[in-house]
Write a structure and sequence with these properties.
Layout (H helix, E strand, L loop, with lengths): L29 E5 L3 E2 L22 E5 L5 E5 L1 H10 L3 E7 L3 H12 L8 H13 L5 H8 L3 H12 L3 H8 L5 H7 L4 H13 L4 H13 L2 H9 L1 H8 L8 H12 L4 H4 L10 H25 L33 H15 L5 E4 L6 E5 L4 E4 L1 H9 L3 E4 L12 H12 L7 H13 L17 H8 L15 E6 L5 E4 L2 E4 L8 E6 L3 E5 L5 E6 L32 H8 L4 H11 L3 H15 L1 H13 L5 H11 L14 H8 L9 H11 L5 H7 L1
Parallel strand pairs: 2-4, 3-5, 6-9
Antiparallel strand pairs: 1-5, 3-4, 7-8, 10-13, 11-12, 13-14, 14-15
Helix pairs in contact: 3-5, 4-5, 7-9, 10-11, 12-14, 21-22, 22-23, 22-24, 22-25, 23-24
């Protein structure tokens, strides 16, 4: 070993001197030997240089074997020996090994560099917990001392703090591995013990044990009891994965592929009219692929043939424009974020590929079952791809060649577009992004790709006719739940209270939670309010929109004041700012009255219908609330017999703003007319009358 101060070899006790070399019978002896008597004949057999953790103790002696000519052949410690020679040591510490001949020495070389592991993960967990709890080290500091990564420290701390005593005992004895122990820490101690007992009772092998824990976490109470009672049986029952298409659609797809080899049948093939929309879109994409291959074959065999046989893309069902928010990036590691990102990508590419290759993330793959690794798909992800007619395909674990090169695209966007740029608004960023991505020569989608050696825009134009057409409506990528609005017209969304339109107070409403925004539906199923989530810095604060209370009755002290209602309206509907400016210019002091009428129309007809009608009135410069109401009445007539809404704010507000009509101001006209019909009294009559 080396002395910590001088760097020289320190003698632990009295070791034999090198002038009297020990015999072959002295195996296991620790001594110092001259550097000149050591050989590195087997150094070429150890050329590998793997990364190692930082050593925290003194260097160990070399392991050597005595040769027939009295020299010492190094078996382990080539790098330490080179370092000591470089430092100028004359003698180095060694441990003698007994080896007769070169064969035994080479076997010892492998054995010396692959020692058996005697330290368990629970031993590591107890040491880490002692450093954190007894020595007051933070997990990051403990990771630096041990030369480990912080996530390794966190897993070991979880073993010591969240693993049940039964689990800790089995981990310490090698009954379970670190991977299974990590999965168990997500359960309560009682659930851990139930799973461990079931694993032992049914002799569940380690790979299947992890699948049992994964299935237990997502199961309800009844399924958990069944899983504990028969874990292997329950896993086997779930191995029958649903097909992405019906058997009929799969058979038709095989027929379409066969048409590539049987052109005679292709001429008489027709798709049935009673297919489900996802199946029809998928089969139409396969049909176009076969026709495109036929066109290429015809062009190669007969140059005079037409350029293509692929029919034009035609969607028999009129599809509404499926808008998506490009202003915000979805939050990662959420199922709704993944589905919303994929749905936005489908809209951007104007179609869906026949197969989606994904990684084994938890939002898509719950686990793999059986010896052949059958995939247990996330139910919502599987339903999403089935809805679009796309087939899911998961990469093999630890097989990077099967995945697309995606990470570098983030660096491309940062270095080529975002770095050093300033944007006036999200709309400005999106417009400049569109130009940069698809219209700038030699940049982004207009450049020659380094791997495919093709221009992405040109490749997409060729493949676009082969994509599966988008359905009429977008897949619901939101989480929906029912909520009760408080009496003060506020609603709690992910720990933050937002105001909603006042007419929803004390009512049960449906709330749709998207990745970056949420929607509140009125009792008729119409969108009453929609907005993005607040930033992390404002989370937990009350978010007030004054326009939500604009239709409430106003007291006398507030009569005549608009409380900047125009600003609140524009903040809620930014695209309708020209309409508000037109109302203020045309209606002047009556503009707040018209703005409140617009808000009542929004409450009555829903958010989407109101925005469409107001935008139409704004386009034709009809700056009048009644014009917007007429458009709504024509485009969205209310059902017959629908009761009128109570005067919960709309009626009193109107009556409070306009003075009611009265004929008292014209009473003098009646008196003048009556006086004109009566005879004029004489002086005598006047005298007698007096």
């Amino acid at each position: 070993m080396l002395d910590a101060d001088s760097g020289s070899a320190a003698l632990p006790g009295r070791w034999p001197h090198a002038s009297t070399p020990p015999s072959r019978d002295a195996a296991g002896t620790v001594c110092h030997v001259p550097v000149a008597s050591l050989r590195c004949t087997y150094a070429p057999l150890r050329p590998g240089v793997l990364p190692t953790r930082r050593a925290t103790g003194a260097d160990l002696p070399l392991r050597v074997a005595l040769t027939a000519d009295g020299a010492y052949e190094i078996l382990d410690g080539f790098k330490r020996f080179a370092r000591w020679v470089e430092q100028g040591h004359d003698t180095v510490p060694v441990v003698l090994e007994s080896a007769d001949g070169a064969i035994q020495r080479k076997c010892l070389l492998l054995a010396a560099n692959s020692p058996p592991r005697t330290l368990t993960a629970m031993d590591e967990a107890r040491v880490v917990a002692s450093l954190v709890h007894e020595d007051d080290l933070s997990p990051r500091t403990a990771a630096q001392w041990l030369g480990r990564k912080p996530d390794w420290i966190e897993r070991r701390l979880a073993f010591a703090t969240r693993l049940s005593p039964q689990g800790q005992d089995r981990l310490a004895k090698g009954g379970i591995g670190p991977a299974l122990a990590t999965a168990l820490t997500a359960l309560s101690p009682d659930d851990q013990n139930a799973i461990l007992d079931a694993i032992v009772a049914h002799a569940v092998p380690p790979p299947r044990a992890q699948q049992v824990v994964a299935a237990y976490r997502v199961a309800d109470a009844a399924d958990r009891r069944a899983l504990v009672a028969d874990p292997l049986g329950q896993l086997a029952a779930s191995e029958a994965r649903r097909p992405s298409t019906s058997p009929r659609a799969a058979a038709l797809e095989r027929t379409l592929v066969g048409f590539g080899q049987a052109l005679a049948e292709l001429a008489v093939f027709r798709l049935p009219n009673d297919l489900a929309p996802p199946e029809r879109r998928r089969l139409e994409a396969v049909h176009r692929t076969v026709l495109a291959a036929l066109a290429k074959t015809a062009a190669a065999l007969c140059p005079t043939a037409g350029p293509t046989l692929c029919p034009p893309v035609h969607d028999p069902t009129p599809r509404k424009e499926m808008q998506h928010d490009r202003n915000h990036c979805p939050e990662p590691d959420r199922s709704s974020s993944l589905l919303e990102g994929l749905a936005s990508a489908f809209v951007y590419f104007d179609g869906v590929a026949r197969r989606a290759v994904v990684d084994n993330m938890a939002t898509a793959v719950l686990g793999r079952l059986g010896a052949d690794g059958k995939i247990l798909w996330h139910p919502r992800f599987f339903d999403f791809l089935t809805y679009y007619g796309c087939q899911a395909f998961a990469c093999r674990v630890k097989d990077p060649d099967r995945k697309g090169k995606k990470e570098k695209s983030f660096r491309l966007v940062w270095d080529g577009f975002l770095k050093g740029a300033e944007f006036a608004s999200w709309e400005d960023l999106d417009e400049r992004r569109r130009v940069w991505l698809g219209e700038t020569p030699g940049i982004a989608n207009c450049r020659v790709h380094g791997t495919t050696r093709r221009v992405p825009n040109e490749a997409w134009a060729e493949e676009r006719p082969l994509l599966i057409r988008l359905p009429e409506r977008r897949f619901p990528v939101y989480d929906e739940s029912a909520r009760i609005v408080d009496r003060d017209s506020t609603l709690s969304i992910r720990g933050t209270r937002y105001t909603v339109p006042a007419h929803l107070a004390s009512r049960s409403v449906a709330v749709r939670l998207f990745a970056e925004h949420f929607e509140v539906l009125d009792p008729h199923g119409r969108i009453a309010f929609s907005r993005t989530y607040v930033a992390a810095a404002d989370k937990g604060k009350l978010v007030i929109d004054p326009s939500h209370y604009a239709a409430l009755p106003r007291g006398r002290d507030r009569a005549g004041g608009s409380d900047r209602l125009d600003l609140a309206f524009v903040a809620r509907f930014p695209d309708l700012a020209p309409l508000v400016d037109g109302l203020k210019l045309r209606m002047k002091t009556l503009a707040p009255v018209h703005i409140r009428a617009l808000l009542r129309a929004c409450d009555r007809y829903g958010h989407e219908a109101f925005v469409a009608a107001a935008t139409r009135a704004q386009t034709f410069r009809r700056f009048d609330a009644s014009a917007v109401v007429r458009i709504l009445e024509m485009a969205h007539p209310l059902p017959q017999g629908e009761p009128l809404s109570q005067l919960s704010g709309a009626g009193p507000a109107v009556l409070g703003e306009v003075e009611p009509a009265s004929l008292d101001a014209y009473a003098h006209l009646d008196r003048d007319a009556l006086a004109a019909t009566l005879p004029t009294p004489t002086d005598e009559e006047t005298h007698h009358g007096s």
